[in-house]
Design goal:
The chain is mostly beta strands and 103 residues long. It is built from no helices and ten strands.
């Protein structure tokens, strides 16, 4: 039963303190109930993402400092490198570029 809680591997393993995110795109709804397409309004502000994979961490003073996030965490971030892999879109960021962990 423990296997049911594990996330399926996407085949990408980030290096160092990098984190792979899947952007959570919320559909925006007007006051009259009409959904506004994403391409109408390009938002440059904070985005939400789900952690898909994490690197082993960074070295500081000869010691490995592991990444504090885990697969499945929801986070806020502002920017990252967009990558496409096997038809899916992902964002790669450094752990230090993540603004907050959503609870």
């Amino acid at each position: 039963m423990a296997k049911e809680n594990k996330k399926k591997s996407i085949g990408l393993k980030p290096l160092g303190d990098k984190v792979i995110l899947k952007e959570i795109k919320e559909k925006e709804k007007s006051t009259s109930g009409i959904y506004i397409p994403e391409n109408v309004k390009e938002d440059k502000s904070t985005k939400q993402g789900e952690v898909i994979a994490v690197g082993e961490g960074r070295f500081e003073g000869g010691k490995l400092i592991p990444v504090k996030l885990k697969v499945g965490d929801k986070v806020l971030y502002q920017w990252g490198d967009n990558v496409s892999y096997k038809g899916e879109e992902y964002v790669i960021v450094r752990e230090s570029e993540i603004i907050a962990l959503l609870k």
